[in-house]
Amino acid sequence: MGLLYVQKHTFIVDLQVIWLTVIAIVSRQRALNGLQHILKKLGASEQLLRVSRRQEPLQPYPPPGSDEIVTSRKKAQKTQESKR
After folding, report:
1. N or C end of the chain: which has fewer CB within 10 A?
2. Model pLDDT for residues 27-71, shown as the tens digit of each residue
3. 55 lies in which domain range?
4. 67, 70, 74, 79 alpha-carbon torsion, rounded to 10°
């Protein structure tokens, strides 16, 4: 979600995220519905939309640019060192 935000953020999106943060204090579900609306307008992938609904348990997934799930910092550091 962070990468999509960095690629497509605007002042309006910033205001919407701030507003959703306030709404989340009162209603988590309404905030998540608002987030879905924003993500769809930004062209988010179906996988990102599914994760952001928070209706299923989160599943481990490799970070962008990797094909491997990071299970510890030490393992991630060793992997990065071996690629150099």
Report:
1. C
2. 999 998 998 988 888 888 888 888 888 887 877 777 777 788 877
3. 2-83
4. 0
The pair of three-digit structure tokens given for residue 31, joined into one six-digit string: 């905030």
Q: What is the DSSP string of 6-38?
A: HHH--HHHHHHHHHHHHHHHH-HHHHHHHHHHH
Q: Binning pLDDT at 50, 70 and 90, where does residue 19 land?
A: very high
Task: Tell me if 61 sits within 8 A of 71, measured CB to CB.
Answer: no
Structure tokens at 59: 């599943």
Please count the helices (runs of H) and the strands (runs of E) in the chain. 5, 0
The CA angle 11-13-18, to the nearest 5 degrees, is 95
φ, ψ at 24 (rounded to 5°): -60, -25
Number of domains the chain contains:
1
